[in-house]
Specification:
Length: 202
Amino acid sequence: MEVEVKLRLPNAEAHRQVTTLLAPFHVTTHRQHNLFFDGAAAELSSKRAVLRLRFYNDDSRCVVSLKAKAVLVDGVSRVEEDEEDLDPKVGRDCVAEPGKLGSVESRILGRVKEEFGVAGENGFVGLGGFRNVRNVYEWKDLKLEVDETMFDFGTLYEIECESADPEEAKRLLEDLLKENGIDYSYSVASKFAIFRSGKLPQ
């Protein structure tokens, strides 16, 4: 179970304020390309599951992940998540021809076949995806991820923080933003849900 605090920033200016404020705590920056897949008969989405390939920094790394049963309440997200590394070249081949996902040696893709019944060359379809620039910070024993997510229909700005004590992490983050006069709101939908809706949340 992955538990994360998710706070939405209203615009590029608020995002710039946060990244400037956290600059002394910066650890790394990831340029991510997220691409999503389903079964040809919507076997995954019909059961609230998401299959994703995430490429890092121009294919230096590829991670396949399966997420299920996501719940997002008051800026705290809870989701079942399983992930593993995949050869980036194999990943790109699957993006070009989603049917190839059915023959990749992978624990997670094995689960997709067994638990959701998606298999065969015509079993998988590509849904498209989006790009994300993720700045990672270590601040007050928390790992903060500040995202700039570029959809075809607009850009979303968000702070994420995975924590075993999400309420305390949320309190620390909210105090930081309030003390510095930075507007924010609780995220109301996952990036995947926003991508599928085709528009930014109001």
